[in-house]
TrEMBL record:
<keyword id="KW-0227">DNA damage</keyword>
<protein>
    <submittedName>
        <fullName>Uncharacterized protein</fullName>
    </submittedName>
</protein>
<keyword id="KW-0378">Hydrolase</keyword>
<dbReference type="InterPro" id="IPR011335">
    <property type="entry name" value="Restrct_endonuc-II-like"/>
</dbReference>
<keyword id="KW-0255">Endonuclease</keyword>
<dbReference type="GO" id="GO:0016787">
    <property type="term" value="F:hydrolase activity"/>
</dbReference>
<dbReference type="GO" id="GO:0004519">
    <property type="term" value="F:endonuclease activity"/>
</dbReference>
<dbReference type="InterPro" id="IPR004603">
    <property type="entry name" value="DNA_mismatch_endonuc_vsr"/>
</dbReference>
<keyword id="KW-0540">Nuclease</keyword>
<comment type="similarity">
    <text>Belongs to the Vsr family.</text>
</comment>
<keyword id="KW-0234">DNA repair</keyword>
<dbReference type="GO" id="GO:0006298">
    <property type="term" value="P:mismatch repair"/>
</dbReference>
<dbReference type="Pfam" id="PF03852">
    <property type="entry name" value="Vsr"/>
</dbReference>
Amino acid sequence: MADIVDHKTRSRMMSGIRGSNTKPEILLRKALHAEGFRFRINVRRLPGTPDIVLPKWNTAILVHGCFWHRHPDCSKATTPSSNTLFWQNKFAANVERDGRALLKLDERGWRTLTIWECAIGRVVQRNLIEEIAAFLYARDPAGSCNDKSVLHGEIISRDTAPGSFYVGSNGLADIPRRSP
């Protein structure tokens, strides 16, 4: 299928897509700051350049776009119909790179929290901030971990039930999607 816009227009559109300071990142940062959390952004010395780093909590937050990072079962994680092989390879490389970054952060002793774009939406909901706080408070700021199994969390949906962290089969903490 041919592209519906010419090459020049498509190039301009694609160059406008940013890798950092995206709207979901900015919304989340504002909400975290309003709740009193202090953080650093886009820390290059850490693997994967996490979007938000909370040094006090030894936690890196990665805000993933559903399209670019292939959020499973998300309607935004579509594959363009033209040049599909290119896109499939690109997306596979993105997912692989994300996995390597998580492993390296874990090796360095960092806890990670992945938050998907669709979980943020156009406004940061109160329950999202509560889930982030629950993840952070699983390890107190002094460094002792109240729950040693909670090394990685994932917030996958806007309708996540409060306090729904659990340890998945991979030993990492996940927040499951609430059944409709």
